[in-house]
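Support case: zinc ion complex. Customer-provided input:
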Amino acid sequence: MIKYQLKCECGIEFESWFSNSKEYDRLEKKNLLSCKCGQSKKISKQIMSPQIASKKEFNSNSSKHENFLKTVNKKLRELRSYIEKNSEYVGENFVSEARSIHYDKKNVRNIYGKATPEQTEELLEEGIEVNTVPWVNKLDN
Ligand SMILES: [Zn+2]
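Agent response - structure generated as follows:
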């Protein structure tokens, strides 16, 4: 069953049930739709009014979303702390340090630092394992 909002030429709006949209089309073609005014057969289907979430629903959804973002930020900060605790920051030297560790096997350790996406791509092509991680500020909420 499908419910349509119909509008007659006379201005009356009413709702009517149909078994499906084809049945509506069939009745409309045969002018079998009728209004209680009994005068006009020009009845048209209204565009269904969009569902508008109530303020309450909207707020609860947005707080769910906020909680999600908070959790993501928390996890990312944990990831950052983990990386900081377990590896050495080499900053702008990241690419050359990563290569020297990979090729010279000298001073082998975990490092983190800065690289452009292109540099990261190059390192990966050379078989050097690197990961790009989203780096969040420690202080923001
Ligand atoms: Zn009417």
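The chain has four helices and five strands.

Case will auto-close in a few days if no follow-up is received.
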